[in-house]
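Thread: "does anyone have the structure for this chain?"

Original post by V.I.:
We have the sequence but no experimental structure in hand. Need at least a predicted one for the grant figures.
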Amino acid sequence: MVLKTELCRFSGAKIYPGKGIRFIRADSQVFLFANSKCKRYFHNRLKPAKLTWTAMYRKQHKKDIHAEAVKKRRRTTKKPYSRSIVGASLDVIQKKRAEKPE
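Reply from O.Q.:
Generated one for you, tokens below.
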């Protein structure tokens, strides 16, 4: 059985069915709060980004790094390039490669 959870409009916390406080504004916009603390802060016009326990604050201050996908590092490969060997120049080596073996 899957429970449909909703998110608190202030704190970002999960709200399970039958829990939370629903507030409907005069412009018929619906807000769902996890508890009276969230509702009170919302009505006092406090910004959730300034309160350390809210999801918005944690996201802005990069506190939940383990939850985010870690960016994979790419390995840089060395590009092959031709080099002359001691005693033979690069031209000589390339001529020998071009010759057909007997």
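V.I.: this helps a lot. The first helix runs from residue 36 to 43.
O.Q.: and The helical segments are 36-43, 55-60, 90-98.
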